[in-house]
Design goal:
The protein is α/β, with parallel strands linked by helices and 285 residues long. Helix content is 51%, strand content 12%.
Length: 285
């Protein structure tokens, strides 16, 4: 996704939410520094993910709270584990697991910081029909492969429980999976710490982006990412940050974007209604 006119306003809203969550009296210096970082990234026409990387990096440096959302991540994971243990579809039902994983992108601290409110967003999303649903195209391609190699790019805690269960279903169907988590904490995104807590190693080889930041901004053009994409038969990319980084790039393999269309640019990218769940299969470019 390339930078759109709405991205500046979105960054300002997320900055206000992020600083409000800290409930600090000295928010003004952090606000000023973050706006300067946003402005600098906009001046160089950065990608949306780079703009937000600048925002969250500036806030973390100003307030020195490297993983402010750790407790919220643990709560989201526990809620998701409990939900899936009671209502999760069986291992053979890959289609339903994919739909739930896409809907679970609603578990997003960038939208709301209260874990109970965020999880309620997921439950509503899970009940809604998707705005775009390319599962049939994905499954047709997947079933044509012998010993498929899948690169799975994770996003938020909570939704990562549903990602793990998609990976478990893919593994059950013969896939060899590499899961990529964030190198450093940003919002409620999954890092190596959450990957270990969720036992992602049971279903995938787990690695990190090897670079800080929101999404894959510093990762996408690296030699490390080139090797990962080159070895994969297909990519599954979760969430807006990964969409922002990859949807306009040429990739050597097809990609399945799973996300909630939380803004107009992401809705336009997936040709779906804003606020809907998007399951977008994009063939190799």
């Amino acid at each position: 996704m390339e930078l759109a006119i709405e991205c500046g306003a979105c960054a300002a809203i997320q900055l206000s939410r992020t600083l409000s969550a800290r409930s600090r009296d000295d928010w003004q210096p952090a606000y000023s520094l973050a706006f300067a970082a946003i402005a600098a990234s906009l001046d160089r026409r950065a990608e949306p993910a780079e703009v937000l990387s600048a925002l969250y990096g500036s806030v973390a440096a100003s307030l020195q709270d490297d993983d402010f959302y750790q407790a919220a991540k643990d709560t989201a994971n526990a809620s998701a584990e409990a939900w899936f243990s009671q209502q999760g579809p069986p291992l053979a039902d890959l289609e339903s697991r994919i739909l739930l994983a896409a809907a679970a992108n609603a578990i997003d601290a960038g939208v709301d910081v209260e874990p109970a409110v965020v999880f309620a967003h997921f439950e509503q999303a899970a009940a809604d029909p998707p705005g775009r649903d390319d599962r049939a195209e994905f499954l047709k391609f997947y079933e044509s492969l012998t010993a498929p190699r899948v690169l799975y790019l994770l996003d938020n805690a909570g939704e990562a429980v549903f990602d793990r269960e998609v990976m478990r279903a893919l593994q059950h169907r013969g896939a060899d999976i590499t899961a990529v988590v964030r190198q450093e904490a940003v919002l409620n995104d999954v890092t190596a710490r959450e990957a270990e807590c969720l036992a992602l190693h049971e279903v995938a080889s787990v690695t990190t982006t090897r670079s800080p930041g929101y999404g894959l901004a510093a990762f996408a053009d690296s030699a490390w990412s080139t090797s990962l994409f080159g070895a994969a038969h297909l990519v599954i990319a979760k969430g807006i940050a990964n969409l922002e980084t990859l949807s306009h790039r040429r990739l050597p393999c097809p990609i399945l974007f799973l996300y909630r269309a939380k803004c107009e640019p992401s809705a336009r990218a997936g040709q779906a209604a804003r606020g809907s769940t998007v399951i977008w299969w994009r063939p190799a470019s």
